Structure formats: C-alpha cells, structure tokens
Amino acid sequence: MTSRSQPVPRRRRGRSFLIFAAIVAGLCCAGSILGGTTVYSSVKDTIEVRNAAEQFLTRLKSGADQSGYDLLCEATKQRFTVAQYREYMFSQPAFATFEITGSSVDGDTATVTAFLQQDNGKNEPRDFPLDRQPDGAWKVCGKPY
User: Contact, 110 vs 104, CB < 8 A?
Assistant: First the structure.
C-alpha cells in the first residue's frame, strides 16, 4: 500500500502582501495627518505671536500708553500700574521704526526679537517675552521694553 500524500496547500502571498501594504499605507496616512496638524499649529502660533508683538510695538511707537498697557499679560499688569508703566516707557529711548527679525514658540511661551531704530539712529535688538493667555491670546509678559 502506497500512501499518497496530500498536496500541500499553497500560501497565498498576494493576500498577505495586500494586508501588509494596507497597514503600511494606514500608518503613513496617520503620520502625515499628525505631522500636518503639528506643523499647522506651530505656524499658526508663530504668526499669532509675531502679530501680537507687532501690535504692541506699533502702539508703543505711537505713544499710545493705555492701549499698549492693555496688551500686557495679567502678571505684568500686577507688577506695573498704568502710571508705573507710563513712567517706565518714557524712561526708555524712543524709537522711530522697528523690524521683527525672529520669533520662537515653546508651548504657551514665546519670544519675539525686534530691531528698534531709535530716534538717535542707533539700532538695538530687543527680545519681547509673550505668554498665551487662558483665552488663547498672546500678550507681552515680563519686562515690556
């Protein structure tokens, strides 16, 4: 009696490859979405930080004391009354123009660097610290100028 062996079933490589390819494609899509969201959030924060600093510097340049004070965070407002803020600002050299040259955002804190061209012609770099407020707005927080 000879035993006849049953044929070994063939492995279905095509289906395994398709499953593997679907998993890889899904992971790539998820990574792209997560990466895109992170980049969008970072760019959005950078634009908002630069806009907040530009608004603050524009108000300082125009001599708008109260509206400049309104762009300070609560912690800084607790350190300076409006009168102290006004006195401090007038003790600083006046500037004719400014140019924002850099910014960095790290979570809820940021720093914006600007070159201020003072009325005497001297260019001076200044860093402006900003904090994200509970309402999402960015405000100058710390030494205002």
Answer: yes
